[in-house]
Every structure is written in C-alpha cells, then in structure tokens.
C-alpha cells in the first residue's frame, strides 16, 4: 500500500465517522503537504521516525507559526495512529512522534472600558443595531464562536429558561447559559423580529434573510472604526468572556463545558490571563494578612 492510498483510506474513515467538512479539509490539506514531502507513491511501511523528524524540520521552512506547526503534527499523528490500527504500520509511531513546543502569544483581552465602549456603540432603537448588540452579547457573555452565532436557530434559543443550544465544532451540540442582560436584549430583539421572515435562524438581515459569517465579519470591520479598538475581532470577545468568567469566580470545568473544548488544556491558557485581578484581590485571601 502506498502513502497516498493510506491517506485516502484515512479520509474515507473520517467521512464515515461524520466529521464536519471543515475537519475533513483540515486533514486533507495537512496530509497533502506530508505526501508532497515524502512522496505519494512511497510504501506506507517506509514511513518511519527518521522521515517524520525530517518532515518536522521541513515545516520550519514554511513560514508558519509554532502553533500551526503543532496543529500539522497533531493531525499527522492521528493519521499514523489510524495506520497502526489498520495494520498498515507495524508500530504506533504517533506515540514516539511527539508534538513540538509551541509559543503561545499573550491574549490581550478587552478592558472594562473597551467593553463599555463596544456595547454602548449600538443604538438599539433600530432593529439592525439591536441585532448587532445581541450578536456581540452572545459572544461576550456566553462565549459563542462567530459561526455558532450565525447558525443559532429559534428552536434552540430558550431565552426564558436562560440557555441556548449551539452547534459547535464537529457537529457537536452543547448548552450555554445566558446572562440577564443578554436575555433582556434578546427578548426585545425577538419581539421586533418580523414574523414573516422565512428562516428559522435567529439573526436576519434587513431583507429578512438569514445572516452569514460574512455579515459578522463586516460588522466587526465597522465596529473597529467606530470604537477605535484596532484589535477588535469576534474571537477576542470569546477570549474576554473566558477570562472574565474565571476572574469572577467561575471554575475551569464549567468553562470547558460552556466553550465546548474537548480538554482542560485548552482552557488553562485563560488562567494565565487572570493574573492581574489575582494580584489585586490577593490581600483578601492572603493567610498572613488575614491573621492580621
């Protein structure tokens, strides 16, 4: 069996599992890169650690970040594990082919003043402005991703009960709580949302069509100029939510569930962002200070 044939088998397995088109494209892209490096006609049993290590070094020449390189290697390890399970490889190389270290950039979340500037920039007397407020509120107060907001349906929005069911990555659904402010504004939006709109999606355009991800992208381009927050982007609101949630006393396990992460490791990065508030509030918990 050649490397290319093994890759096609792996991609077929991912489709059978029901993985999303985005996940399939991710695997196909990274495995094509590996195939170009190693040779598509290479016998699969010739894929061994020396070749994998050379490939890891070759990725350094592609002008990609250390986090992207880690993502490439993680996907390749999934393929190697599949090949071992199918009997294409005599040993599980994924255990020996370790992830390279990745240097994570410090996430510069929104300050309280910037949050106020953002949320007060909407004139909610107007329907589209009210819609935009609710879009940002769901990202900032419930940690939703841009695509999760765009695809949220009326059937899955339970405002009175205080939660929404969102379609996350990989087609996985999860329940997220709604804050009181978000509930208030969502109810106002739903009361004004035209009943004649022929869509089940919550957020619609002025032409009564469902919004797309591009609608939110264009919104944030406009908000950057209006608020003067140059680094403003949809995912920054999610980062801000996660950090503030921990600062305000939330626990990592519940945050993991709200964000839809598969492991605590992806949540731990937000713990480092809470340092500032920890320093300010530490005297309240300091053993010596409290002995007094």
Task: Please write out the topology.
Elements lengths: L2 H14 L4 H18 L10 H11 L6 H20 L26 H8 L7 H16 L3 H5 L6 E2 L4 E5 L5 E5 L2 H13 L20 H15 L6 H14 L4 H8 L5 H4 L6 H11 L1 H5 L1
Antiparallel strand pairs: 1-2, 2-3
Helix pairs in contact: 1-2, 2-4, 6-8, 6-10
Count of helical stretches: 14
The total number of structural domains is: 2
Estimated share of beta-strand residues: under 5%
CATH architecture group name of the largest domain? Orthogonal Bundle
Which bin fits the share of residues in helices? 55-70%
How many angstroms does the end-to-end distance come to?
73 Å
Spatial sequence of strands, sheet with the most strands: 1-2-3
Mean pLDDT: 88
Helix/strand-derived category reads mainly alpha
Give the overall shape, derived from the CA principal axes: globular
The run of helices and strands is HHHHHHHEEEHHHHHHH
User: Biggest sheet, in brief?
Assistant: 3 strands, antiparallel
Indicate the CATH class of the largest domain. Mainly Alpha
What's the CATH topology label of the largest domain?
hpI Integrase, Chain A
């Amino acid at each position: 069996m050649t490397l290319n044939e093994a890759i096609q088998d792996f991609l077929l397995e991912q489709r059978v599992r029901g993985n999303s088109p985005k996940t399939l494209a991710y695997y196909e892209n990274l495995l094509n890169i590996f195939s170009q490096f190693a040779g598509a006609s290479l016998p699969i049993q010739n894929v061994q650690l020396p070749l994998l290590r050379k490939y890891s070094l070759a990725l350094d020449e592609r002008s990609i970040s250390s986090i992207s390189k880690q993502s490439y290697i993680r996907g390749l390890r999934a393929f190697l594990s599949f090949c071992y399970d199918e009997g294409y490889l005599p040993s599980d190389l994924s255990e020996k082919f370790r992830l390279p270290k990745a240097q994570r950039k410090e996430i510069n979340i929104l300050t309280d003043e910037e949050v106020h500037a953002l949320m007060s920039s909407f004139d909610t007397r107007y329907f589209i402005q009210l819609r935009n407020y609710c879009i940002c509120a769901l990202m900032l107060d419930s940690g939703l991703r841009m695509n999760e907001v765009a695809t949220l349906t009326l059937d899955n929005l339970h405002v009175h009960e205080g939660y929404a069911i969102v379609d996350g990555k990989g087609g996985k659904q999860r329940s997220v709580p709604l804050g009181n402010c978000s509930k208030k504004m969502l109810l106002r939006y739903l009361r004004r949302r035209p009943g004649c709109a022929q869509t089940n999606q919550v957020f619609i355009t002025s032409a009564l069509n469902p919004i797309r991800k591009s609608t939110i992208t264009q919104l944030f381009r406009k908000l950057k100029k209006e608020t003067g927050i140059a680094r403003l982007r949809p995912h920054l609101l999610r980062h801000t939510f996660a950090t503030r949630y921990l600062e305000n006393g939330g626990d990592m396990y519940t945050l993991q569930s709200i964000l839809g992460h598969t492991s605590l490791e992806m949540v731990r990065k937000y713990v480092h962002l809470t340092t500032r508030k920890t320093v300010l509030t530490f005297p309240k918990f300091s053993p010596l200070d409290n002995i007094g």
